[in-house]
Predict the 3D structure of the following.
Amino acid sequence: MDVNLYHHFEHGVDEVFKHFFNIEKIEEKNRSLGNKKLNVEHCEIQGDTGKIRISREIPPAGEIPSALKAFHNEKNRVTQTEHWIVKDDGSYFCEYDVEIEGVPAKLQGKMHLVSKGEHAVNNVSLNIKCKVPFLGKIITGFLAKDATLQMDTEYELIKQQLIAD
């Protein structure tokens, strides 16, 4: 199952990219989201590449279907790893994966942060796969809905952080 989102920022692409790598802002955003036990394992830009790896306990954004209660806890340990590169056109491209401890699904995505005049747009895609018989569609459907809510909430927080700076 695929999720595609387009996040528009009133700030320039370079400013938004640098914001993504600001550890203080990452910590502030996660506190605001109610995430616990945040661990920023890696957050570094080297030349034209960057890597972020964070893990945290995240509560689900929506109601958990009863068929999935065995897979979900009140908070699940989630680890996200992002690999960024600067493209020749000045845009930023990322491939990322998300691991949810105890959930039998594979989540991989891409982000492409591009300039739109003086502003930036982050094109976000996420592919969710689950090979569990009978429950796979329920799991991927729930994860797609939950991921969309989580990513949209993070986007709103990042926009607020950028305005406050």
Summary: The CA atoms of residues 45 and 51 lie 7 Å apart. The beta strands are 2-9, 36-46, 49-58, 76-86, 92-100, 106-116, 119-129. The first helix runs from residue 13 to 20.
